[in-house]
Design a protein that fits this description.
The structure is a single chain. The protein is of the alpha/beta class. The protein has two domains: about 10-160 and about 270-300, Rossmann fold; about 180-250 and about 255-265, no CATH class. The chain contains eight helices and ten strands. The protein has helices at about 15-25, 75-85, 105-120, 155-160, 210-215, 230-240, 255-265, 270-300; strands at about 10, 30, 50, 90-95, 120-130, 140-150, 185, 195, 220, 225. A four-stranded mixed β-sheet has the order 3-4-6-5. A two-stranded parallel ribbon has the order 1-2. It has a two-stranded antiparallel ribbon with strand order 7-8. Helix 6 runs parallel beside helix 7 (about 255-265). The longest helix has 29 residues, at about 270-300.
């Protein structure tokens, strides 16, 4: 959002390590630690509220039934909306796994839309994939933009008119199917390291020594050695600057623990280039609206 021209006023983050990283990069911005206990009067005035409520109860990667918005984690959406009711920000950006769209047959997503509609927000949503924004990661996330008393603005933010169906290329039946990017290998074939040209989605909970991420995303060498991604490599795959999640006062004796915390922080984050794209378009829409309002007031005088 800063890259899009906004200034940060407030953070809310429950994980102690992530709070420390936020304070490291934004030392003058207040960080609250629990949205469940947060009072809306403690939140500074701001045009935009952005939130990525927990995905654990919504994710398609979760084994077994999904609790959806009834879950302890993803149900924090309701706490967020409690705060929205008290302050009614001009615009809201929500981000979550695309499993939100299908959770409980779409009923959970209906709850999200109804909650915003009842407060007078116009809403648009779109699934964006990080790989389409210059990031080597297959990461599909649904972004929801809501603007108060504005039915048109959210769609202008998330959808480009030049990408309508009339511009889609017609397929040819005799064309060969393109190779999967997951099957394309890059690197030094003689010395290594070697990696897939695009990574599978980086998860917050499974990038340690065990879990699905470790089996899907890895680096290997022609001599048979295999290793997981380093924290810096995961940062690059997610679109962060190198060492973004490295604590300034790093104790090398706790390297394994810090690595695990860094994996979690990066996997739980939004992809910065995607958020920047959404923020830049939202900024443009808001500025145009402000200019229209100024012209309308001038004409009335």
């Amino acid at each position: 959002m800063e890259r899009a021209g906004f200034s940060l006023q407030f953070h809310c983050e429950v994980k102690p390590f992530c709070r420390d990283i936020l304070k490291q990069h934004w030392p003058d911005v207040t960080v609250d630690d629990d949205i469940r206990k947060l009072d809306d009067t403690k939140i500074p005035d701001a045009d935009i509220w952005a939130a990525g409520f927990p995905c654990q109860d919504l994710s398609l990667a979760r084994m077994g039934p999904r609790s959806g918005l009834r879950g302890v984690q993803s149900g924090l959406f309701h706490d967020f909306m409690r705060l929205v009711r008290g302050r009614t920000p001009r615009a809201i950006i929500l981000e979550n796994v695309h499993g939100l769209l299908s959770s409980h047959g779409g009923r959970d997503f209906t709850i999200v839309l109804q909650a915003l509609d009842e407060l007078g927000y116009g809403v648009a949503w779109r699934v964006l994939n990080s790989k389409d924004f210059g990031v080597p990661q297959q990461r599909r996330r649904v972004y929801i933009v809501a603007m108060h008393r504005d039915q048109r603005g959210p769609g202008e933010v998330l959808f480009e008119p030049q990408c309508g169906d009339w511009n889609l290329k017609k397929g040819r039946h005799d064309e060969k199917k393109s190779a999967s990017l997951f099957q394309t290998i890059i690197g030094d074939a003689r010395k290594g390291p070697l990696v897939k040209s695009i990574a599978h989605c980086i998860y917050a909970e499974s990038a340690r020594h065990t879990g699905t991420d470790w089996s899907r995303n890895y680096v290997w060498y022609p001599d048979g050695r295999v290793r997981r991604f380093t924290p810096n490599e995961v940062e690059r795959v997610q679109g962060f600057p190198v060492d973004w999640t490295l604590p300034r006062h790093f104790d090398g004796r706790q390297a394994d623990r810090v690595d695990s915390l860094r994996y979690h922080a990066v996997g739980n984050a939004v992809t910065p280039p995607v958020a920047e794209w959404v923020g830049t378009r939202l900024m443009a829409v808001m500025r145009r609206q402000d200019q229209d309002n100024i012209r309308a007031l001038a004409a009335a005088e």
